[in-house]
Amino acid sequence: MANKNDIDFDESKVKIVGFIDKNFAPVGKWWYQRMTNLSYTTHTLVLIDQKVVDHFTEINNSSSSEYYRFEVRLVDEGNRRKQKIRNLWYHRIKYCLEQLEAGESILLTDVDNIFQRYVPLSEFYNSPYDTIYALEQKFPTLVKEQMGFVVCGGMTFLKSTPGTIAVVKQWLWHCTKTHEPDMKKARCDDQVQLNLLLVKSMTWNNENASRPENLNYDDLIQYGFDGYHINPNISFHAKVWDRDFAWRGDFDTHITCPSRENNWVSMPTTLPKWTRDQLTEINPRINHNVAMEKMSRVAVW
C-alpha cells in the first residue's frame, strides 16, 4: 500500500536539474525526453553558454511540439574546455545553494546518467535524510584510502534543510578558497572538493558495508549506509545509496552490471576499447565528438 505522504506529495518541491552546453545539447535532449517518458515533471535543463541558450530558445519558439524547460547560468569560457568545465562545477554548487536557500530541494544529475525507471521523489524527500549521495569508484584516490569510499559529484539528492545548506556552503567554500576575488571565474573539481569535505566533517556508519565479504570484485563498497556531521552545531544526517540502486562502475564487464529489479539510475564509465574501435570504424567522428560518444554509450548500455 502506498504511503499517504507519498500520495499527497507535491513533486514541485523537488527540481531535477542537469547542466549542459552546446556540445551536450543532443545528450540534454535525450535526457529530458527520457525523464518525461518516465513521468517526471520537474526536470529542468540549466544552460551554460549562449550558443545553447539560442538553440533551445529557437526550439521553444518554433511551431513544433518539441519543448524544453530550461534556466540559464552562463559560465566563464576560459581558454580551454577544462577551464570551462571547472567553472561550471563551481556554478553548479552555487546554483544548488541558491535554490536550497530559496526553499527548493534539488536532485542534481549529469545528463548522461541513464534513468531506468520511475522512483517517486517523495521517497527521498520524506526520508529522514538531509542529503543522499551516490557511490563513485575510486576518485579521488586519497579520500578512498582514508574514508573507504568516495561519492559522486554528479548524482545527489539535496533536501532544503538547514543542515544541507550548511554543508553545501562548506562545499562552495572549498571550491572557491584558492581562487581570485572574481568568483565568476572560480574553478574547481566539485567531486574532489566534496569528498575532501566529507572525509573531514562526517562520521559514517559503514562498518558492515566495508566488510571484505560485502565488497565487490574491485574492493568497492556495494551497500548503502548513513552518517552524521561531526559538528554538533550542524544537524546533518546523510545517506549513501546502494551501488545497485544508483550504479557507477566499469562498462566492459558483466560482473558489475546492476540488477534490472532494483536499479534506478546507471552511470557507466567510458566505452570499452573494443566497442569504441567497432564504432569508430562506422563513424570516425566518435573520437572527436563528446555528444556522439555519450549517446553511443547510452545506446550500447
The whole-angstrom Rg is: 19 Å
Beta-strand fraction estimate: 15-25%
The SSE string, one letter per element, is: HEHEHEHEEHEHEHHEEEEEHH
> How many strands in all?
12
Query: Average pLDDT, to the nearest integer?
Result: 90
**How many helical stretches?**
10
**Can you list the strand order of the major beta sheet?**
3-2-1-4-7-6-10-9-8
What is the overall shape?
A: globular
Low-confidence stretches: none
Class by SSE composition = alpha/beta
Distance between the termini: 33 Å
What percentage of residues falls in helices of 4 or more residues?
25-40%
* Main β-sheet description: 9 strands, mixed
Structure write-up:
The model has no long low-confidence stretch (mean pLDDT 90). With 301 residues, the protein is α/β, with parallel strands linked by helices. The strands form 2 sheets. The chain has a 9-stranded mixed sheet, with helices on both faces. The protein starts with a helix and ends with a helix. The protein is 36% helix and 18% strand.
Q: Which descriptors apply to this entry?
A:
three-stranded mixed sheet, 301 residues, nine-stranded mixed sheet, alpha/beta, 12 strands
What is this structure's SSE topology?
Blueprint (H helix, E strand, L loop, with lengths): L3 H4 L6 E7 L4 H13 L5 E5 L2 H12 L8 E3 L8 H21 L3 E5 L4 E2 L6 H4 L5 E5 L5 H7 L3 E8 L3 H15 L13 H12 E3 L20 E5 L7 E4 L5 E4 L15 E4 L4 H10 L7 H11 L1
Helix pairs in contact: 2-10, 4-7, 7-8
